[in-house]
Write a structure and sequence with these properties.
- The complex is a heterodimer of chains A (about 110) and B (about 120).
- Chain A has about 110 residues and is an all-beta fold.
- Helices cover about 0% and strands about 55% of the residues of chain A.
- Chain A has no helices and 11 strands.
- Chain B has about 120 residues and is mainly β.
- Helix content of chain B is about 0%, strand content about 50%.
- Classes of the chains: A mainly beta (about 110), B mainly beta (about 120).
- The interface between A and B is medium-sized, with 26 and 24 residues.
């Protein structure tokens, strides 16, 4: 089955700096890559996604890039704010199966 | 606003007990999912269902079963709970027609402790 690896597991940045989280996947048939944000004690929520026919997608301060040849995709958060502090999960979808990465705990230091 | 609810936020059971975790969604979603969340392992898919009475195994189905008798309700069953099933269990739902490629809406989670 699919194997999704996510790095780093923890990330601390100063407020206003950028944060980058990277994921790799193994199954070339994967064709949908969402990112979920989970604040402490809350449920995961979708923040952005990208499909395999697109290389980059932006939504205000967040962007996701996809390199299908190298089988990796990344989440970029610019101008980080304290409310960006959370655990971020990447995922890869192959057919009807949903595979999550192990999560990145992002801390934005005011 | 999609609402996914789970029957309990916290549950403590003894080894060998049969455990039922209930999930209900109110948005007429076709797809429903059960995950467990463990530190360092992220979210792992246990079972999912794309229609009533339909179920498919996820990544870690061993020790679990599911039931989907009604569209809005998806139950996770631990036939004989074991200590290694102590975990946070998250239910999710999504619109049909997109397989697993639609946005998933998560419930608040059930923290299960098996002693």
């Amino acid at each position: 089955g699919e194997n999704v690896e996510q790095h780093p597991s923890t990330l601390s940045v100063q407020e206003g700096d950028s944060a980058v989280i990277k994921c790799t996947y193994s199954d070339s048939a994967s064709n949908y890559f969402p990112w979920y944000k989970q604040e402490l004690g809350k449920r995961p929520q979708l923040i952005i996604d990208i499909r395999s026919n697109v290389g980059e997608k932006k939504d205000q301060r967040i962007a996701v890039t996809l390199n299908k040849t190298a089988k990796h995709f990344s989440l970029h958060i610019t101008e980080t704010q304290p409310e960006d502090s959370a655990v971020y999960f990447c995922a890869a979808i192959t057919g009807n199966q949903f595979y999550f990465g192990t999560g990145t705990s992002l801390t934005v230091i005011p | 606003d999609v609402k996914v609810t789970q029957s309990s936020r916290y549950l403590v059971k003894r080894t060998g007990e049969k455990v039922f975790l209930e999930c209900v969604q109110d948005m007429d979603h076709e797809n429903m999912f059960w995950y467990r969340q463990d530190p360092g392992l992220g979210l792992r898919l246990i079972y999912f269902s794309y229609d009533v009475k339909m179920k498919e195994k996820g990544d870690i189905p061993e020790g679990y079963s599911v039931s989907r008798e009604k569209k809005e309700r998806f139950s996770l069953i631990l036939e004989s709970a074991s200590t290694n099933q102590t975990s946070m269990y998250l239910c999710a739902s999504s619109l049909g027609g997109q397989g697993a490629r639609g946005e998933q809406y998560f419930g608040p989670g059930t923290r299960l402790t098996v002693t």
